User: What shape does this take?
Amino acid sequence: MSVIVNNLTKVYGEQKAIDHISFEVHKGEVMGFLGPNGAGKTTTMKILTCFMPQTSGDATVCGFDTKKDSIEIRRRIGYLPEHNPLYKDMYVREYLTFMAGVHKLDNPMEKVASIIERTGLGPEQKKLIGALSKGYRQRVGLAQAMIHNPEVLILDEPTSGLDPNQLVEIRRLIKELGEEKTVIFSTHIMQEVKAICDKAIIINKGVIVANDTIEFLQSHATEESNVIVEFAEAISPEILKKIKSVKHVKNLGQNRWKIATPLDIDIRKELFQFAVSNNLTMLELQREISSVEDVFQKLTK
Assistant: This one.
């Protein structure tokens, strides 16, 4: 198991930044770490990367304790902080060569060339970091986090400032890395969570309010199941309400309806049979899946 957190707490004065949180992330998983600003995401990441100590509780990374084995943990993690501190007066290749030296890598030139290619920095490698766009600076930050081939990647807002094309490339890269490493990353972009993550943790006011797969969180975002149906013919809501298990219906315009049932009921078969029995032409029939945004808003209000 790569990352284990047990009753982790961090207190600043009288404020609890994180309050007895616990979770596990395994090798080969990409975990999205979500929450409003000030929820405790960055604090948790700083503890896991040994940038600050916890007040109480335990955390281990690759079997090493954050309180006792900070040097061993730092050897095994790659970290991209929220504000991506870089030496802006160094050239891209020069900076990555310097980072290869910090990690005492064998064949540093080969490792630098490989990570430049993997992060798409080739066209910018001879430029000063200070002259790069924000998106390319993020790529440099990702490159330094990955250059020593760490077992665990901890990325705080890794796609901030990327344009749509860069987003697609970096998402693909993170997904690939997640097949062989443990990846924890925070983001405010909900589409990223669905596109990249195996599971998500949502933290609010220092407390974990959700920890499960994306599919489970979406399916349990509401207390009822919704189906969208559209008929070619006009139909009254009273007739739809007579179908077994229907709680309520809502017209979405013309002959399109949203039908709510208890969460564990799938009414699509009954709706199809209803259409056949009443000589109705069904144009659309689909279950409505809650978005990640819905889940986030519900749990962090």
The two ends are 33 Å apart (CA to CA). The domain at 222-300 is CATH 3.30.70 (Alpha-Beta Plaits).
